[in-house]
Amino acid sequence: MKVVIPGGTGQVGTVLRRALGGAGHEVVVLTRNPRGDREVRWDGETLGPWADEVIDGSDVVVNLAGRSVSCRYTPANLQEMMDSRVRSAEVVGEAIAGAKRPPRVWLQMSTATIYAHRYDAPNDEVTGVIGGDEEGVPRYWAYSVEIAKAWERAQEKAETPSTRKVALRSAMVMSPDRGGVFDVLLWLARLGLGGPVAGGGQYVSWIHDRDFVRAVEFLAERDDLEGPVNLAAPGPLPQRAFMRALRAAWGVPVGLPATKWMAELGALAIRSDTELLLKSRRVVPGRLTQAGFSFEYSEWSEAAADLAGRVRHGRSGTPIPA
């Protein structure tokens, strides 16, 4: 099948492109800076030749476009996140609506951040609580939820009657690739900084890269599934336990704890934001599980061991010392 991935040059796009291309599918990436023969230029904002060239006649569109969340959550950066996500979704919808042979399915990236910061119960697609009204959290966290809602709304409003639409409410995709979230967390653990943050009770939701790819393939083929779908392993766990399992996978015995203010200093140093560390994302894959999807990696300890092994022996071709 022909798969088009707008915004497919980041970590998640790299994971999808590698796996789907390796499985024999034709994969085309839309990017502002094309460098290969299967990369096509677009600006993420306006229709152009790319619409007729790659969207028309494709089978699946997986839209990953949007400004990276790996940044400081300043008002300017938050606005850029909003604008880039909403406008790219709108223009993908316009391209699909104008296609003579539209794709059969449009998988639109969304985020598990849409759910409320909570500890008491997991969030699935039916009973989950949408965030934005929580007490005792920074006010700007609500804007992250508004971004997610606007992102999904842009897809919902697109007039694409011949194309099934799915919003991928994805947790953090864990892969061994350089610069990805697992790479950063492993780096912290190897430095001895992989302990509990602010007590470590906040839940971490995640999905192994192979299960992410398998879920995308599953959703592409299941004509009965549309709307929001959580892409998260069924075993979210508190941050203290999450990092303990990661340290065990690499063989690091100790991880120093960090307070909230220490986490803020660390986030500032790596130009990130503490929401990524402190928000409790307790998300479970209700619709995927009900549809019969089976996870290869449902427990974090097994996933962490696999990812650490791939880093040691596969990422650079040379084993890395502990």
Largest sheet: 7 strands, parallel
Q: CATH superfamily membership, which one?
A: NAD(P)-binding Rossmann-like Domain
Radius of gyration: 19 Å
Instruction: Please bin the fraction of helical residues.
Output: 40-55%
Unreliable sequence segments: 316-322
Percentage beta strand: 5-15%
User: Mean of residue pLDDT?
Assistant: 93
Distance between the termini: 41 Å
Strands, count:
11
CATH class: Alpha Beta
Number of helical elements: 11
The best one-word shape is globular
- Total tally of structural domains: 1
Quaternary status: single chain
Strand order of the largest sheet: 3-2-1-4-5-6-10
Look at the helices and sheets and give the structural class. alpha/beta
Summarize the structure in words.
The protein is an alpha/beta fold. The chain has one domain: Rossmann fold, CATH 3.40.50.720. It contains 11 helices and 11 strands. It has helices spanning 11-22, 49-55, 75-97, 141-157, 181-190, 209-221, 239-250, 260-269, 275-278, 286-290, 300-315; strands at residues 2-6, 26-31, 39-41, 60-63, 105-109, 164-170, 172-174, 203-204, 206-208, 227-231, 237-238. A 7-stranded parallel beta sheet has the order 3-2-1-4-5-6-10, with helices on both faces. Strands 7-9 form a two-stranded parallel sheet. It has a two-stranded antiparallel ribbon with strand order 8-11. β1, α1 (11-22) and β2 form a beta-alpha-beta unit. α1 packs across α6. The longest helix has 23 residues, at 75-97. It is globular, with a radius of gyration of 19 Å. The termini are far apart. 45% of the residues are buried. Mean pLDDT is 93; it is low at 316-322.
